[in-house]
UniProtKB/TrEMBL annotation:
Transmembrane domains' residue ranges: 6-25
GO biological process, one term: protein O-linked glycosylation via mannose
Protein name per UniProt: Ribitol-5-phosphate transferase
Matching InterPro entries: FKRP_N, LicD/FKTN/FKRP_NTP_transf, LicD_transferase
GO cellular component: Golgi apparatus
Family the UniProt entry places it in: Belongs to the LicD transferase family.
Keyword Transmembrane helix: yes
Amino acid sequence: MRISFCQGLLTGAIILNLLILYYVSRAQQQMMEKRKELGRGTKRGAPPVSVLGGGLGVLVGGGEEPGVVGAEGHSHGPRVTVLLREFENFENYVGDVASSFLHQRPELPFLAVADTSPYPPLVLPEGARLLILSPSPDQPPQAHRPEFHVQTEFVLLVPDGVELEHPRAIERLIRELEGEGGGPVRLVAAPVLARSAVQCLHLRVHLREWTATYSPAASGSSGSVCTALQGDAVILIRTEDLFNLSVPLGRPLFSSLFIQTALRGWKVKLLESPCFSANHRPLFNSAHNQWKADTRVKDATGKLMKSFGLKHLLLPDGKEQWYGCSKETPRCFGTVQDDTPDYLYLDRWTPPCCLRALRETTKYVINILESSGVRYWLEGGSLLGAVRHQDIIPWDYDVDLGIYLEDVPNCDQLKNLDSGSLVDANGYVWERAVEGDFYRVQYSEANHLHVDLWPFYPRNGIMTKDTWTEHKQDVEFPEHFLQPLVPMPFAGITAYGPNNHRAFLELKFGEGVIENPQYPNPAKKRWDRTKL
């Protein structure tokens, strides 16, 4: 069989890629082994030097320094790399921070890390280096990956403007972390003496619900153990732990770091001492620069939350931050196929911003129906959610209400929809659905989260319709379930539902439906209770 030129070229490209992957993997393994040896006090020769993006020489390891005494009192190479990640290009004290640490501990590698080359350029003292994370097409991949440029056992994460006054403070942190052994405490922190004290927090991250919750943590006599920090602090972490995180140096650093460590069950111990000084506080000399910094942190937080799949933050002061959809943006998921929204395939439930929009729309629609004299009741999955949760089912993507067809002329928003859709004064879109003979109320023109209104009429004591969908719950039912309608809590309001909800639901879904929750189309995606 003859091989064409294109086939040969493709084969060569594949072989070249495999060779590159092999050598990168081998280099990573050697780097990890070298770190472990350094941690045991193995002596090394002079540190290698790598030239990174922008022609900057970057220190990638620490060499042996005679007479340097480590945490155990033995002479060996440095065990810690000082790393500064959080600073602003337009005003910073990175050079001063590097000078302070290198004056007290000249043997320590000092690494400033930036996404792109800072402008104006940083002025760094001898021994301090800059690492640019953005890849460059003329550089090998390891040139911009921080794990290739730290060969010490530990990393000390320091904020901008901090100073090292006591050379032995770092050894104190090392002893504290080593004293924890292999327990859940994987980070040790020391406060920075600033205007606002650093606060220990508890952080619970629920990826399935797209939510992170912060709450204050109590302080102990020998230091606080918690899952997150708020405020200025210096943090010591093992290098291996740091670079086992999926995003080791994301920004904002504390948000990125503690979300990932909390998901792994790691804890941070906040010591009362040693303390690090910070003469440069506030960091910015003008209100304008402070505003620029705050804006950049806000933007970086939004990008971080999007990449982590978090849409709702509950802060320790009770405030909330939202990073999902709104009335002015599209909803968080696209067109639903096979009754299974895309987030279920990610083992996620309905994003909280979408649930919030559904609750607002439901409350709005029900208020209009009641004030217009339109009889309605909770239908299908919405009734099931009311019975189980007094709310929308956590993975549902719309709300269903049944209405009496004969009451439609009572409602100004519904009675003329045959001639088109209506955008009301509050931005809600009322329309006759294109999928069938029912009505739909959307959250907005941009955001298509919606409440569906299903018109029924009685015939010989049976509630029926002229057209039907393929949903198994879309069936006729006796009118006596609606005589009378009964109030029930739902989505933060009181709505009306059938008077015998169990019998009604089992007629539509089958026996035991209340006690046995399942996703809408188990053939496509089945709820795995073992993941709860």
